[in-house]
């Protein structure tokens, strides 16, 4: 289609999610900040027992939209720079539909990974 196979083969999205401890260590080593608060906030869609249960159609649509927006925020510029803005726009226009289909076929999958809540304090 619109994208050359060679361009796809040479495109990589390096993704690494550090642990809270790694994040604190890096901030402590390279900045004048400390990290007084750092914790993982689990934004699972389920009951208080942590088990994910069947969700209604509108929730699934909202989750798919949110995943699409998050993907565009994180990867939009990289995709646009590599393949062109029009191609990136088309990809992220289609992304929520693909996420929705994934949630339909994998109903117990969390929509988003856990989120880190971090407070940085400027050191004197």
From TrEMBL:
GO molecular function per UniProt: metal ion binding; methyltransferase activity
SUPFAM superfamilies per UniProt: S-adenosyl-L-methionine-dependent methyltransferases
Name of the protein: SAM dependent carboxyl methyltransferase
Gene3D superfamilies: Methyltransferase, alpha-helical capping domain (1.10.1200.270), Vaccinia Virus protein VP39 (3.40.50.150)
Keyword entries, A-Z: Magnesium, Metal-binding
Record flagged with keyword Magnesium: yes
Organism: Nymphaea colorata (pocket water lily)
């Amino acid at each position: 289609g619109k994208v050359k196979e060679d361009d796809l083969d040479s495109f990589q999205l390096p993704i690494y999610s550090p642990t809270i401890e790694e994040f604190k260590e890096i901030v402590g080593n390279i900045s004048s900040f400390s990290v007084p608060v750092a914790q993982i906030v689990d934004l699972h869609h389920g009951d208080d027992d942590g088990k994910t249960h069947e969700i209604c159609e509108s929730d699934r649509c909202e989750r798919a939209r949110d995943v699409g927006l998050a993907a565009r925020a994180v990867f939009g510029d990289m995709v646009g720079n590599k393949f062109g803005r029009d191609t990136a726009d088309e990809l992220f226009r289609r992304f929520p539909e693909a996420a929705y289909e994934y949630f339909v076929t994998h109903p117990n999958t969390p929509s988003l990974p856990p989120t880190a809540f971090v407070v940085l304090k400027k050191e004197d």
